[in-house]
From TrEMBL:
Keywords: Membrane, Transmembrane, Transmembrane helix. InterPro entries: Bact_2-comp_sensor_kinase (IPR050640), HATPase_C_sf (IPR036890), Sig_transdc_His_kin_internal (IPR010559). PANTHER family: SENSOR HISTIDINE KINASE YPDA. It comes from Aquimarina addita. Gene3D superfamilies: Histidine kinase-like ATPase, C-terminal domain. The chain crosses the membrane at residues 34-54. It comes from the Bacteria. This is Signal transduction histidine kinase internal region domain-containing protein. Residues 70-148 form the Signal transduction histidine kinase internal region domain.
Length: 260
């Protein structure tokens, strides 16, 4: 106040000159004058601080989005090699047996890889693409296990909605890996998908092997579920509900995802 009053005294109006002629102590202790001077000189500072805050917030949101994309990419990369390894093992076994079903398996695998590599890069994809992916996967596993596995997949989707890619496939993989591959006799896998009250409702039931599941298998299943939960937190936050139930002779997963 002392500095600027001296510099610009000649440009003040009569009222301002009257205040400027008072001593610094008088002006400082006079609340109305002090407040008016603060508003005059601090307003540009406040505007600059607000602009800087907004700019920092934008940078934070941008970095947060980049982090989110990076985490999702890492989680998908954990899933894809595991799925490819299992499917190639199936194809290898069929080729050794010179099965007539080998061309069908190759075609199904080609469709799956085309989707996973080139058509599911978006954060959300049409739900019918995920349904087709699951159907292709089930076709491959039916060829592999034959009559050992009783498999049903009911989907009642009467409108086009979107869903995060590859999330549901993890549950299907787990059902086969820990419900079928360990079973010496017949096992059961029942999958359903429908729309209800703005939610995609997905459920999968699989019987447990009579000989039990080892600790390593349980650990692998837990890792798969953990990865899915991380994706759900990143993509759906509070817009989902996941329930995993383990009974004496079965596993059951119920997932509800809110769609836009």
């Amino acid at each position: 106040m002392y500095y600027f009053d001296i510099q610009y005294f000649d440009f003040y109006n009569d009222t301002q000159k009257q205040y400027a002629q008072d001593s610094l102590w008088t002006r400082t202790t006079r609340f109305s004058v002090f407040l008016s001077k603060c508003i005059l000189y601090l307003t540009p500072t406040a505007l600059l601080l607000m602009f800087q805050f907004y700019k920092n917030q934008q940078n934070f949101l941008k970095l947060n989005e980049q982090k989110k994309v990076a985490e999702l990419t890492a989680l998908k990369n954990q899933l894809n090699p595991h799925f490819l390894f299992n499917t190639l093992n199936n194809l290898y076994a069929l080729a050794l047996d010179k099965s007539d079903k080998t061309p069908e398996v190759i075609e199904r695998l080609s469709d799956i890889l085309d989707y996973m590599l080139y058509r599911c890069d978006d954060t959300y994809v049409p739900i019918h693409k995920e349904i087709q992916l699951i159907e292709n996967y089930l076709s491959l596993e039916k060829v592999r296990y034959g009559k050992r596995a009783f498999i049903t997949f009911d989907h009642h989707i009467d409108q086009e909605v979107t869903i995060a890619p590859l999330i549901l496939l993890t549950f299907v993989e787990n059902a086969f890996k820990h419900g079928v591959s360990q079973e010496l006799k017949q096992c059961t896998i029942i999958i359903s998908m429908t729309l209800k009250d703005s939610y995609i409702v997905f459920s999968i039931f699989n019987s447990k092997p009579k000989n039990g599941v080892g600790n390593q298998q349980k650990k692998d299943a837990s890792l798969g579920i953990k990865n899915v939960k991380q994706q759900l937190e990143l993509l759906y936050s509070n817009a989902y509900d996941l329930q995993v139930l383990e009974n004496e002779d079965s596993f059951e997963v119920m997932l509800k995802l809110r769609y836009a």
